[in-house]
Amino acid sequence: MFGRKKDEPSAQEQVDQLAAEAAVKGVGKGAPTPKRKEQEAARKRPLVPTDRKASKEAERIAVQDQRQKMRQALDTGDEKYLPLRDKGPQKRFARDFVDARFSLGEYLMFGALLFVVISFIIPAGSDVLSYVLIGFWVMFLAVFADVFILSRKLRKSLTLKFGDVERGTVWYGSMRSLQFRRLRLPKPQVQRGQYPA
Q1: So what's the pLDDT on residue 50?
Q2: What is the mean pLDDT of residues 109-131?
Q3: Is 120 exposed, middle or buried (0-12, 13-18, 19+ CB in 10 A)?
Q4: Which of 2, 8, 189, 191 has the fewest CB atoms within 10 Å around its CB?
């Protein structure tokens, strides 16, 4: 702060000193209540740290450590460090339920990519291209039906296990079913056919 002397003890040192004094004095009726001025002085911290470079480096290391823990949690399914959108017992149940079944949606992107490649190879006026387009729409409708059936089953299972379904959990499971299994994050923790109890 402005006008503060360099040799003045830092806020953390003051807090440590007061804590040490409280431990020596003992807590209870025999110890006097600390003065308000002392308590406020102990809580004061400078808005701008004195060593900005070290502070910035410490913050960068802390953020990097947090990201590393989150990456590991996405691989192992550790609930403590998962992102907020993946946390909770209902989300975990939805992930396991979706990962245990075979979903047509996993292969929708491959079908779309195949359609694009074929449309470049075959001339625009060809009858074959119209059949390929019909095939793509049939696949799309099959995926839609599969996701609809999955969402109904997932909602029923969640209601049986938890009673009340959290908002967004069924959508979360449905969107997960559209991702290729090996690319899903958090990574699948169950084998196919290993439905959660």
Answers
A1: 77
A2: 87
A3: exposed
A4: 2
pLDDT single digits (tens) 46-103: 777 778 888 889 899 999 999 999 999 999 988 889 999 999 999 999 999 999 999 9
What are the tokens at 15? 């807090």
DSSP letters for 139-192: HHHHHHHHHHHHHHHHHHHHHHHHSSPPTTHHHHHHHHHTS-GGG-SSPP-S-T
Q: Which helix (H) or strand (E) holds 119?
A: helix 108-121
**What is the pTM (predicted TM-score) of this model?**
0.68
Ramachandran region of residue 32, left (φ > 0), alpha (ψ -120 to 50) or beta? Answer: beta
Distance of CA 171 to the CA centre of its chain: 16
User: Average pLDDT in the 112-134 region?
Assistant: 87
- 109: which 2 tokens? 């992107």
Q: Which amino acid is at 99?
A: D
Distance separating alpha carbons of residues 16 and 21, to the nearest angstrom: 9
Q: Is the dihedral of CA 173, 177, 178, 179 positive or negative?
A: positive
Q: Which of 96, 64, 69, 65 is CA-nearest to residue 81? A: 69
CA–CA–CA angle 137, 138, 144 (5° rounding) = 85
Angle at 19 between CA 18 and CA 25, to 5 degrees: 85
